[in-house]
């Protein structure tokens, strides 16, 4: 299985994680998720594999998060996923998938949990 990173080149953490992968001798498949977002099903699976809730995978610091009212009580996981697919900037980053699992590598050292041995 290959390693994949859902990457935003403008994000310092994302760049750091990509560099750590390369320093470990791994040339991952790089998906710039703002240009090529995952499908709703792939996003939901990636979040579940990471052991996160959908809310934990949303980029709450993004102004759009509050503009869309996603911080309101009672917003469902389905509504959050729909918003993340419609507005990929709301997907927190970087997600990395290896043969050992998936993680939201924020902070960057979370990557160590899933680096192939």
Automatic annotation (TrEMBL):
<dbReference type="GO" id="GO:0046685">
    <property type="term" value="P:response to arsenic-containing substance"/>
</dbReference>
<dbReference type="Pfam" id="PF03960">
    <property type="entry name" value="ArsC"/>
</dbReference>
<keyword id="KW-0560">Oxidoreductase</keyword>
<protein>
    <recommendedName>
        <fullName>Arsenate reductase</fullName>
        <ecNumber>1.20.4.1</ecNumber>
    </recommendedName>
</protein>
<dbReference type="InterPro" id="IPR006660">
    <property type="entry name" value="Arsenate_reductase-like"/>
</dbReference>
<comment type="similarity">
    <text>Belongs to the ArsC family.</text>
</comment>
<dbReference type="InterPro" id="IPR006659">
    <property type="entry name" value="Arsenate_reductase"/>
</dbReference>
<keyword id="KW-0059">Arsenical resistance</keyword>
<dbReference type="InterPro" id="IPR036249">
    <property type="entry name" value="Thioredoxin-like_sf"/>
</dbReference>
<dbReference type="GO" id="GO:0008794">
    <property type="term" value="F:arsenate reductase (glutaredoxin) activity"/>
</dbReference>
């Amino acid at each position: 299985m290959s390693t994949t990173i859902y990457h935003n080149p403008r994000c310092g953490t994302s760049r750091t994680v990509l560099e750590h992968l390369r320093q470990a001798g791994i040339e991952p498949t790089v998906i710039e998720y703002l240009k090529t977002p995952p499908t709703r099903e792939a996003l939901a699976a990636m979040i579940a594999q990471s052991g996160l809730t959908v809310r934990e995978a949303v980029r709450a610091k993004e102004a759009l998060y509050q503009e869309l009212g996603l911080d309101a009580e009672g917003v469902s996981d389905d509504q959050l996923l729909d918003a993340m697919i419609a507005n990929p900037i709301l997907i927190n980053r970087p997600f990395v998938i290896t043969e050992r699992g998936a993680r939201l590598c924020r902070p960057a050292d979370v990557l160590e949990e899933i680096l192939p041995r």
